[in-house]
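Marked as duplicate of an earlier ticket. Keeping the data here for the record.
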Amino acid sequence: MLSLGIFRADRNLNSGLQCSDADNSTSESSFRVNLDNLLGLLTEKGPSSNGFFKTTVGRKSGKIYGLMQCRGDVSAENCANCTRESVAVALRDCLKSKEVQVWFTWCFLRYSNEHFFGVWDQSSAAIVNETNFDNASVISRGIVFMSEVAITAPKQPLMFHTAVLDAGQFGKRYGMAQCTRDISRTDCSRCLDTQLMTFRTTIGNKRGWEVYGSSCSMWYHDYQFYSNISITANDGDRRLSLHGVAIGITMAVLLFLFVP
């Protein structure tokens, strides 16, 4: 995971990975068939369904629930590429796990043998460049600005919102917030508010940060990173592997909050 703020263009980086403990039953043919079918459906249907798709495969105890979502500004082509990248990472690094979440900058993949649709999951991770401090006069405005983004996003049709803060001589700040479309608008609002409150001391004085969660995510930078339509997928890797433990990488600060 590379420190944020060093890139001046939006790039599709592997931002996080969470795998449940290894389960030998994943090697059973029925689970493998169901998982392959599920991932195939998510890859096929998601990009052409306005960047969001959820479905189930299998019956009774063999049922698998899956969801994919792309960032609201990402083109269908980049959404498809990102989804394929996420599936490849899941199968490579979480092959024996029944509960998997993969975050890329442009998309999110999640599947589980437990029902999670419509349930607000408070797990979130904040990524910041610890040395990239903002001007003191901009800090408070930035927090208020992102609070307004968080208020607006749940009201939008796709629960996705972008905005620009004009900080005068200090330039502009760009914000984005998005919730997974399986949760309610009320839970979307609660999710974004909780992220801001939880990580306020970590992100509050930084020029750039990103927060990735199971139900919502937020981005804040001093350059326009959104509305990408042509940047090639996965230029570089800032992968974090999470197996119940938070791991920090040089020049970056990562905090992961697990709420039972």
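See parent ticket for discussion. The first helix runs from residue 29 to 45.
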